[in-house]
Amino acid sequence: xxxxxxxxxxxxxxxxxxxxxFCERFLEPTFGVPDIHGNYILKVGDKPNLCFTAHHDTVxxxxxxxxLIVMNEVVSVADPKTSNCLxxxxxxxxxxxxxxxxxxxxxxxxxxxxxxxxxxxxxxLVSDDPDWLQQIDSVISFDRYGDKSIVTHQMGLRTCSxxxxxxxxxxxxxxxxxxxxxxxxTDSNEYSYTVSECTNISVGYYGQHTKNETQDxxxxxxxxxxxxxxxxxKLVFTRDPSVIDSSWSYPYKxxxxxxSWSYDNKDKxxxxxxxxxxxxxxxxxxQTYGFTSYSLMEExxxxxxxxxxxxxxxxxxxxxxxxxx
Length: 325
Description:
The protein has 11 helices and 16 strands.
């Protein structure tokens, strides 16, 4: 795990020198140079039908190197005053993919740029429609907190079937991994209107995007071992990406009606009461779903130029246009 620890020392906001140094040290020896959007892409095998993804930016509020503590198989930031997060989101995912590549696991591996500022790298890549994408049946991101999730819904819409989630758990021999309809969004969501099964897998970090973020090394070792020994032939692909399934409520009761979002008014009023009465608890819940202040504003389409700046590409509208227009 020592290479992961060294990787976690790099604080990498998008576009920074430290991010470039991280990529040059840990990615380019394996992937070569990135594409024009900053994504690193490597094909392993003749005709892989699986795409594994992570991203190389973090939500640190400053670049540079940070000191870490490892205690009882858990990594954390040594001094929260000098770093606002650990950055296991998504350094751990990058580490997992490098392990899989080293062991020759067949697949297309993509380490995206700019996920934390609106999945820009993955959106641009999907828009380019590369040839290899046409043969992909599943996009599997390693960018989920905890140790139990195979994400089936992102931003309230199904991106992965329950059947696939069960088959993924079986393929790895990890029954603790189960379908989770509580996903926010990550890069795999960008592929979900084209590719059958798009999911996000728990990699053992907690408290992401906060100074209390930690990485569970024991679970990570269990997951990597399972991935290297997985029987990928057990995967079952059933979702039709052209069919819209928004039956799940995220994070409020939501449904798609005639090309626009509609809400259950009573549930909305109840939620407003809860938000007003328990703002700290609601904020903590949103953090567990992976929201930052920027991504929450973007999801709610709150236009505040002083906070948006050049940060946003209107992610919510982009996803809407892809799925419903």
